[in-house]
Design a protein that fits this description.
five-stranded mixed sheet, 69 strands, alpha+beta, elongated, about 35% strand, disordered C terminus, about 1000 residues
Length: about 1000
């Protein structure tokens, strides 16, 4: 073949250029990523707790338990943090931590805490027990950088002296054939796919699922490297020499060129933490604070740095933790830091004028502008752009745009701006309120009296409205115009006329600042608060437990998710539509959610201006005009902390003693006042947590404590108590179950049951003594009266004996003398003798009566004998036979009572003999243990029913005597069938009481 002559082959001539192009194309595949770096994290609110404010220093690790408490491993011991207070955790009684230099933490499902020390082994801390493990328990000497648990629940520890796992009693090394080196083990990780990763001897080792041995990946690492897993399931490596890079994904190790292409050499990190949005957080090593990296796919787009100039407690940070509420916690050597995503974002590239306005065009786009009237397009995709880009986009807007310059309307159409002055006589007067229903129509309240409508390039005055300028305007759903006024009134104008509402209709919010018609609910905001009207009902004040939160509302909108947003003087307020309706109808307070500076709100709502300060765009962004600039909130996101907070009951203070309130605690006798501490373990906004509590036996229902974390009780009695407390987080989500503790207050001796029984016994004894003393007094009084009665009877008997009887005896003797006289005729003598016999009988009866007065009715006889003598006296011998029956042994009877019984019996016998003409009489005496019975029966003529008890003074006397005795008297009688009288006397009223076998010291022996 002949050699070619002339020009070489074209391909060879172009080969250098082609190789250069290929090299340039390949370079990005092997080049690391260097995203744009910015200082500060505008999307996050930072809160710091510094060493001088009670926080510990040298924080090496952070863990969160099941309740939500944070645990901090520090160089000075173990601390816990509930969002408000740091408490140093002491070892349980009788034990001690091997060292205070703690570097690693891990929590079990039962909240027992594993602690790794710098050079002192490992400990396990439970509620009441501390177990420590050293060389004797299989833990080699060295730092314990990390713990990890595998799928089987086995706990592994990375220790500089080797890899170990815990078998329940001691720490064991892997099998000899496992292949992992026994030195310089600095990190370990069990990923979601079951792969076990270990950093040992400055290399990366892995054990795939199901394998028994580790394999060397051949990838070298630096000292103090660490691993983390992303939400996508990728394993990332933080290396102090090469920065941060992905290591593997679900398919296994990434190719070296891919690892290199995605490497972040500027992110030299000590620890890594991914968030749910895919962003990577890192603590920089050894200095540099905190970094956050965002990605677009596999490409890192932005790195935000946060260090001491931005407020970090110290530039040297190590641990980073994402808690269950989405907060990120960073520990430094000078305190603790929290990063919380802001719900409200400030527009950085927007108008810079002091007064910034918002307007919504008919196509749903929202524009912002300042006093220069330069509009900014605020669509969601443009927000990351510059101010120039936002203004350029606004200039190409297709829909007309309404604006104002305080005295003129301004309309921009197709990039052309036109000022529209107010008509005379309102030209040049300030605009008080504006409303733009559509592209061709505008409503204006101007000056002090003008309400104008601009349509089709013409101004129209509204004659139906009074000449009074309004302070705000809105359009109702049915097309009616709503106008609020500075005097607190509201007018509604539609085709039917104008309706006015004021204080008489329940509207009392002060000067009206904003209006919103949401379905059938009308909201009226004023300087003094908020009022709502549902349907045709009167207005009702909207109340809340957060003072002032509904004042100064100058913008209100309703989103597509049933939430109402109110921009006011305290910040942005969110209300649930359904909850608000229920609260208004029931006249109860509503629970708002306030978004303030901690949530990213830049200042408060503008308080002066003719247009609303809250505007909702078609893309779901809520735009807010504040005194510090324009801000936005994405209404398509929930912005709700839906996790119910746990509650921790802390110490109880009684007297000068403070102790943990544990179940079954016994408080000393005499305790009457308590202070109980509690706290919600919600770390997002602990200052916004709300509480309610109750103490059984004291509180009838839940006591609303607001944000107070202490309960006070006074005047507590001894007994068993149960204290319950619930908490709600910043979004009003209450605890699923209350935290509770039971305790007991011991009684003093004066409060014991025995003392009460003793007091009752003493009272009963005192009552018994009082009754006895009173009974003695009554008995003495009765005896005195009885003696007085006996004395009176003896006096009467003496008087009768000395006067009547002696006189009668003298008269008989005189008559006897007359009868014996010779001059007395025989007929007269006979009459005199008959009269003397009658007189002698009367005298004998008188003497008997006198003797009865002296000796009583018995004169030494018993009751049966006395009644028999009565029968003998009145019946005579042999006639009207008496049958007397006695049952029981007659006891000693009370003289006064037996006399009454005798008189009743005597009267019954005398009635039977004198009035009933009885031929036979029966008398029965029955001495029972509880009752004495007297029966008197006869076979006489009886008594008619209509006469029984009427007109018979003897029967009436018998009843009166029975009543005085407390006895029961019964009478049975029928004409021709005889009569029966029955008397029942309680034994205690008739029988003489037996003297007691023993006497109280104060008893006195009485002579009866």
């Amino acid at each position: 073949m002949l050699p070619m002559r002339g020009r070489p082959f074209p391909f060879l001539r172009r080969l250098p250029a082609l190789l250069s192009c290929l090299l340039l194309m390949a370079l990005p595949a092997f080049a690391e990523q260097r995203p744009v770096v910015a200082d500060g994290m505008p999307g996050y609110q930072h809160t710091a707790w510094r060493v001088g404010q009670g926080a510990p220093g040298d924080i090496w690790d952070i863990a969160q338990d099941q309740q939500g408490m944070l645990w901090l491993a520090t160089g000075s011991g173990l601390y816990r943090f509930d969002g408000r207070r740091f408490e140093r955790q002491a070892a349980p009684s009788g034990s001690a931590f091997p060292s205070t230099n703690m570097v690693t933490l891990a929590l079990d499902a039962d909240d027992s805490l594993w602690i790794g020390y710098f050079q002192a082994g490992i400990s396990q801390l439970s509620a009441s027990h501390l177990r420590s493990f050293g060389r004797a328990e299989g833990v080699p000497i060295g730092v314990v950088p990390h713990f990890s648990r595998d799928r089987e629940g086995r706990l592994w520890a990375a220790i500089n002296g080797g890899l170990r796992w815990f078998d329940g009693r001691r720490w064991r090394a892997p099998e000899a054939h496992s292949g992992v080196p026994e030195r310089r083990v600095q990190w370990l990780l069990h990923d979601r796919h079951g792969t076990f990763w270990v950093l040992a001897d400055l290399k990366i080792w892995r054990r795939p699922p199901g394998a028994t041995a580790f394999e060397d990946t051949g990838i070298a690492v630096s000292q103090m490297a660490s691993l983390a897993e992303s939400p996508r399931g990728e394993i990332w490596l933080a290396d102090r020499n090469r920065g941060t890079s992905p290591l593997a994904d679900a398919r296994g190790l990434l190719a070296a060129n891919e690892r290199e292409a995605r490497r972040l050499p500027d992110l030299v990190a000590a620890r890594l933490q991914f968030t749910a949005d895919g962003a990577l957080w890192a603590t920089m090593s050894p200095h540099g604070g905190v970094a956050r990296v965002t990605f677009d796919g596999d490409r890192a787009t932005r790195m935000e740095r946060f260090d001491t100039p931005q407020g970090l407690t110290a530039t040297s940070a190590v641990p980073i933790l994402l808690d269950r509420e989405g907060n990120l916690w960073v520990g430094t050597n000078l305190g603790l830091n929290r990063f919380r995503a802001r719900s409200v974002q400030t527009l950085a590239a927007g108008p810079t004028d002091p007064y910034r306005s918002l307007v919504r065009a008919s196509d749903g786009r929202v524009y912002g502008y300042g006093e220069d009237l330069q509009p900014y397009d605020l669509r969601r995709p443009l927000l990351a752009g510059s101010a120039t880009q936002l203004k350029d986009a606004a200039r190409h807007a297709s829909a007309p745009l309404w604006q104002f310059d305080w005295i003129n309307l301004v309309q921009t159409v197709g990039g052309h701006t036109t000022r529209i002055p107010s008509p005379a006589p309102f030209t040049g007067q300030p605009l008080q309120a504006l409303l733009f229903p559509n592209d061709d129509e505008a409503w204006v309240c101007v000056g002090e009296r003008g309400v104008l409508r601009y349509a089709r390039a013409q101004w129209h005055r509204q004659a139906r409205l009074p000449e009074q300028a309004c302070s705000t305007m809105a359009m109702a759903g049915d097309g009616a115009l709503l106008l609020g006024y500075a005097d607190g009134r509201l007018r509604r104008m539609d085709a039917r006329g104008v309706a006015t509402f004021g204080a008489a209709d329940g509207l009392a919010v002060g000067p009206v600042t904003a209006l919103l018609q949401d379905q059938d609910m009308l909201l009226v905001a004023g300087e003094a608060g908020l009022a709502a009207r549902i349907g045709k009902r009167p207005f009702s004040e909207v109340r809340t437990d957060m003072a002032g939160v509904l004042e100064g509302i100058t913008g209100m909108v309703a989103d597509a998710h049933g939430r109402l947003w109110l921009n006011g003087s305290r910040g942005l307020v969110r209300l649930d539509r359904t909850a608000l309706r229920d609260a208004v109808l029931r006249h109860q307070p509503v629970a708002p959610r306030l978004f303030d500076a901690v949530d990213g709100m830049p200042g408060i709502a503008l308080q002066s201006g003719p247009i609303p300060t809250a505007v909702l765009a078609a893309d779901g962004l809520l735009w807010l005009a504040t005194n510090q600039g324009l801000a936005w909130l994405d209404t398509s996101a929930a912005h709700v902390n839906s996790r119910p907070p746990g509650v921790r009951i802390g110490d109880v203070l009684y007297g000068a003693t403070q102790a943990p309130l544990v179940d079954g605690l016994r408080l000393p006798a005499g305790t009457t006042q308590l202070q109980i501490d509690y706290v919600a373990l919600s770390l997002a906004r602990p200052e916004r947590n709300r509480y309610r509590y109750r103490l059984s036996g004291v509180d009838e229902g839940w006591q609303d404590a607001g944000s107070s974390t202490r309960a006070y009780y006074t005047n507590l009695a001894p007994g068993h108590y149960r204290f319950e407390v619930e908490a709600a987080n910043e979004d009003g989500i209450w605890s699923s179950t209350p935290a509770l503790r039971s305790f007991r207050i011991d009684p003093t001796f004066l409060q014991t049951v025995w003392f009460k029984l003793l007091c009752a016994a003493l009272v009963l004894a005192a009552l018994a003594m009082a009754v006895r003393i009173r009974s003695g007094q009554l008995a003495a009084l009765f005896r005195a009266r009885l003696q007085e009665r006996h004395g009176e009877r003896e006096r009467i008997a003496r008087d009768l004996h000395d006067t009547l009887l002696q006189g009668s005896q003298g008269l008989i003797l005189h008559l006897h003398a007359i009868s014996q006289s010779a001059q007395t005729p025989d007929g007269v003598r006979t009459q005199l003798e008959s009269a003397m016999q009658l007189a002698e009988r009367n005298l004998a009866e008188g003497r008997e009566r006198v003797n009865a007065l002296r000796d009583g009715p018995f004169a030494g006889r018993d009751l049966a004998t006395a009644l028999a003598d009565v029968h003998a006296e009145y019946a005579g011998q042999g006639t009207n036979p008496l049958r007397l029956t006695v049952e029981g042994t007659p006891p000693v009877l009370q003289a006064d009572a037996v006399e009454e019984v005798f008189l009743i019996g005597r009267e019954a016998i005398r009635n039977a003999l004198r009035h009933a003409h009885a031929s036979a009489i029966e008398v029965e005496l029955s001495y029972g243990s509880r009752c004495f019975l007297l029966h008197v029966r006869d076979d006489g003529v009886g008594i008619a029913d209509d006469e029984a008890g009427h007109g018979h003074w003897g029967l009436q006397g018998m009843r009166e005597r029975a009543q005085r005795l407390g006895a029961e008297l019964q009478l049975w009688t029928r004409p021709g069938l005889g009569t029966e009288v029955a008397l029942a006397v309680p034994a205690r009223r008739l029988y003489h009481r037996r003297p007691p076998r023993w006497r109280w010291p104060w008893n006195r022996k009485h002579d009866d």
